[in-house]
Amino acid sequence: AQSVAQPEDQVNVAEGNPLTVKCTYSVSGNPYLFWYVQYPNRGLQFLLKYITGDNLVKGSYGFEAEFNKSQTSFHLKKPSALVSDSALYFCAVTKYGGSQGNLIFGKGTKLSVKP
Amino acid sequence: ETGVTQTPRHLVMGMTNKKSLKCEQHLGHNAMYWYKQSAKKPLELMFVYSLEERVENNSVPSRFSPECPNSSHLFLHLHTLQPEDSALYLCASSQGNPWEQFFGPGTRLTVL
User: Fold this and answer.
1) Of A106, A108, A104, nearest to A31 (Cα)?
2) Are B98 and A101 an interchain contact pair (Cβ–Cβ within 8 Å)?
3) If contacts are CB pairs under 8 Å, which of residues 20-79 in chain B contact chain A?
4) Residue B91 in contact with residue B84, Cβ under 8 Å?
5) pLDDT per residue as tens digits for the range A22-72
6) What is the DSSP string of B31-58?
7) From the list B2, B56, B99, which residue is nearest A43 (CB)?
């Protein structure tokens, strides 16, 4: 069965510092991995995806994520955090040939960036 | 906004009420989804419609009844809900790649 783990409920970072939001996954076969962000009172917004190719993928708002097959991880990173990055971040996984729309989401990590 | 709208944004209902949630997408997508978001729990996929046909139903209780009259509209009919059904209900749509989904702002449902 597919699953996603986001081990941290909350991550606190000072503005200007690098940030990392962790995600590990479990899936049989080749994984497709995604990050979504949810700002207060809004729906989820797609940030980036890994399907195949380069292990480092770049997405919106300066975010990037690194696929590590040996560690089954897909951590979200940003070199310099902004206060406006404060939001809830969700990692998701599906597999090649998986059911239509069957994204499996983690429970989310709240990112708080302080000035 | 993302091109996916949901109404109402907030809903309070008693356990014996009947209500409906509405979702509309203005993106020309051909698939639509209902999710349930509860605090500190993973997002739960409830229903998937592709080309107006239901292709996924993840063991959702029958007190939730979806309807997709056309590719732009999706409803979730609610009847005899329980307090544990209180949550944020999110609608999403996609085109082509089913994994890049566009979400609406959600309906915050409270069942008394």
Assistant:
1) A104
2) yes
3) 31, 33, 40-43, 45, 48, 50, 55-56
4) no
5) 999 998 888 899 999 999 888 899 999 998 889 999 999 999 999 999 999
6) EEEEEEE-TTS--EEEEEEETTEEEEE-
7) B2
